[in-house]
Amino acid sequence: MKEAVAKFRDLIVANQGEVVYEEDWGLKKLAYPIQKKTTGFYHLLGFKADPDFIAKLELQYRRDERVIRYLTFAMDKHAIAYAEKKHGPAREAVSVKEEKPAPKPKKPVVDDDIDIEEED
User: What tens digit of pLDDT does each residue of 10-19 get?
Assistant: First the structure.
C-alpha cells in the first residue's frame, strides 16, 4: 500500500507537480464488492500539476493492479479555498516546531553532615 502511494507521489513530483496535501484514510469497507474484494485502502492526494499530466497519471492508475478504483477531478476556486482551510497551507509553508531539549535531571542532594542519635 505505502509503496503504491509513494510511486504515485513520486510520479507527480517527477512531472513538475506539487503535492499540496495527503491523507491516509486506511482500510474501509467497500459499498459493494469489486473484483471479489469487500475492503480497500483509501488514500487522498491533493496536488497541483499540468492538465496534460492527468492522462499519464490515470494511465498509471489503470496499469497498477493494486488500484481498483480512482477518482481524479479539477477543483474550482471555491473548492480550493475550502481545501486550504480544511488542510491548512501546503507542506512547505507549514512551520516546523522546534523541539526544546529535555531538561537535565537534577543531581540528588547528598548531605553528609547528618548526625543520627542512637538511643540505648
Answer: 999 998 888 8
Q: Which residues pair with 24 in a beta bridge?
A: 43
Helix (H) or strand (E) holding 41: strand 37-48
Architecture of domain 2-91: 2-Layer Sandwich (3.30)
Q: Which three cell numbers stand for residue 3?
A: 509503496
Residue 54 sits at the vertex; the CA angle it makes with 50 and 56, to the nearest 5 degrees, is 110
Query: Is the pLDDT score of 114 beyond 80?
Result: no
Report yes or no: 48 and 17 within 8 Å, Cβ to Cβ.
yes
Q: Which residues contact 15 (CB under 8 A, 6 or more apart)?
A: 49, 50, 53, 56
pLDDT score, position 96: 42
User: CA 94, 100, 106: angle at the middle one, nearest 5?
Assistant: 165
